[in-house]
Every structure is written in C-alpha cells, then in structure tokens.
Amino acid sequence: MSSITRRSALALGLSAGTAALLGACSTPGTNSVNSVATIPAAQPGEKITLTYWAWLKDLQKVCDVWNAQHPLIQVEAVWTPGGNSGGYQKMYSALAAGGGPDLAQVELRSIPEFMLVNGLVDVSRYGAKQYAERYDPTLWNQVSYLDGVYGIPQDAGPMALYYRQDLFQKIGATPPTSWQDWATIAAELRKAGSYIDCFALADSSWFAALATQAGASWLKAEHDGWTINMTDRATLEVAEFFDRAIDKDLVTTNYGQYSAPWFAAAANGQIASLSSASWGDALLQGVSGASGKWRVAALPRWTGKGFGSSYVGGSTAAVFAHSKHPQEALEFAVWMTTSREGIDAMIANSGIGWSPSKDYIGAQRQQPSAFFGGQDYNQQIFLPATKQQNPDWSWWPLTQQSFEILSDGFRKKASGTSLVSSVKLAEQNIIEAFKNKGLSIRKVTS
C-alpha cells in the first residue's frame, strides 16, 4: 500500500479527519473519491438503475416497493455471501478493478476498513447530515467519522436478556437487574443442572459488546491518528467478572450461542438464559419445544457508569466509490431505512435486525408474541434499550483482525491464561498491527 502522509493527503483535498483515518493505506494509483467534485444528480426524465450488493434474503422484494414508486430510479439487488464469508473480498476486488455496485451492505464495524481503501463515498457531501435526526443517534455516530458520513445505518441489534421463565421459577429467581445478581442466579441454576449462559472463547465480539455496555470505548479517531485504551476500568471489570464466572463454572465455554450444541442444550433445559441481540428472537424459535417458555428482560447492568444495553451486530447501506449516481443511492438508502414502507418491507422480506429509525420499529414489532408467552417485548424491552446505549463507542480499521487477536488470547483460558491478561496483551498486539499497516496510533489512559 502506498504511503500517504497527513500533509500529502491534505494536498489531495482530503479533510484533516479523513487524512488521519486513511493513514498509510489507499488503493494504489487512485485519488480519494471524496477529493474530487461531487457528481450531479440525474437529469430530469433520465432513467437510471442502481445496483445494491447485499446478503439480505429477498432484498429485491424491498427494492421493488421503491421501484414501483420511482420509475426513473430503479434498484437491482444482487445477492452476495456474508461479509467475511466472501462478500467483502468480492467488494474489495471490484473496487480495485474500478467497478463495484452503487450500494453495498457493509457492517458497521467494517466501515473504517473500506475507508482505508478509498472504497466509500462520504455521503455528507450529498446532504446526508440533513437526515441525521431520523436515526438512532448511537448508530449515526458509528457511521460518522470526524466531518464525514460513510454509510447509512440499515439495522442493528440492541441487547437484552432472554430467559426460560420456568427454569428461573424453579429456583425462585426473577430476571437479574445487575450482573452481580446474574452471577448469584447462575450459581443456583448450576445446582439445578443448567447453565445461565455460555461464553464463546472463539468470538470476542460478545465480550466487546458487554465492555461497551460497561462504558468502554476502545479506539477513537483523532485528527492526528487513532487512540487506543483497552485497559480501562470498564473493560477490565468485565474481564475480571467473566474470569470468575468461568473459573466457578457458572457459564460453559464448550460452545457459543446459536451453535448446534447450544440448540441441543437449550432444548434439554441446560441453558436457562442468554444475553443477546434483538435478532436473537427469531433464532430462539429454532429451539425444539421452546414456544411459550421464553421471556425477555432488560440486560443486567454493571456497577459504576455503565449503560442499560449495548449493540451486537448491525449493518449499513454504504455508497461505493465508483457509483455514478451517489445522490440517488443516498435517497434510496434513506427511504429504505426510515420510511414506514421501507422498514416494514425489510422486516417482512429480509428479516432485518432492529430498525435504525428512532421513530418507527415496524408494524410487525408492535404486537404481542405468542412464542414469548404473549409478551410485547419489542416495545417493552428493546425499544427502551435503544435509548440506553454507549454513545462513545466507535469502530476502527482492522476491527476483524483485532477481534481475532483477542479471541486467540481468550482460547488460552483453558490452559490458565486469564481474560484480563489476554485483553492487555491484545491491546499491545493491536497497536503493532496498526503500526505494521502504517497507521498512526497511540495508547491513552482513562
């Protein structure tokens, strides 16, 4: 990758913030799409077709709702594999060849990595900021880097506690309101033959979500590069807590949530609850004999600062660098993610996670659920959870690599390495990974 200093990036017309984010990575031989003049909208009466690459099922049915109302701006959905299952590689290859779609599904956490290869249009240049008030502010923050906006939030996963009401009643417990209560209930459930949850050593994104809830903010974009702090009080409190939980056999590390062994254990009453995202409701319905047994409660809270919930997962509709119609692509993305028609179509056809709109959760999510014993859990639990998020969390380049580094450390828990030690070592290794990419990063303390 060719080196771009902050000064030379500014000379190309990039903002100071974008220069810092790009650091030393760009597609060789290219100028940033955001350093050239904006592309004008289509001429009156001109018919255009936008392409949208995504792994959402039946996305064309959503596009067809728009297409019926906008005969001059048609959208064609093209299915791709999931991001890290081949979809991103296809997108990167298309960008390197000077092509690619007008829009693509990019996870919130992957936005900075596409920015590093000049892959995304800063849609604030096409008026995106005028739509900010329509979105969950925490999600909007996760697509905003300094002065730019690099994706439109598409869906997310506010967290809550799913629990087996009968297993909790068996030990005389109600849903825990604090993580300390959670640990106490976990000990009682173990006596009754169940685990309260599992801790997936191979997937550190769940740990990151709970650290976020506790108040962590690991990496931040500054005008002169990135700062990192993974050894803050919040993160270490969460690591220490789960070190104790694993050591006391309060959680199982033999499998992860929603894996085949997990489904078998849940069907046999060996899993009594799970802390997971709103999209987990559909997955829970795959547990044999589970209908009517599960309920939803607010996520337990950490001591100190902390927040009521956190997010797991979430995607954007991002405008790609070689789009000839970024203005129209932005208009479609905003319609799809904030209009009642778009949101309802996304839920009905594509089964999206939680709507990014701060004003509308979707018609299907405003009614009681027979599976959850008649509970209206979306409005009672998940809607409040969206308003109890950590606003300071943001994603960074090398997020996937960072999670792999952290997971590699967590896997050593079985051989005696603590989660706390793994977090501290991961921070050092992530700093080295940044430097190896030519990215500016410095350690800060809280």
From TrEMBL:
Domain of life where this protein originates: Bacteria
InterPro entries per record: Bact_solute-bd_prot1, SBP, TAT_signal
Pfam families: SBP_bac_1
Keyword field contains Membrane: yes
Keywords of this entry: Cell membrane, Lipoprotein, Membrane, Palmitate, Signal
Signal peptide: 1-24
Gene3D superfamilies assigned: Periplasmic binding protein-like II
Protein's recorded name: ABC transporter substrate-binding protein
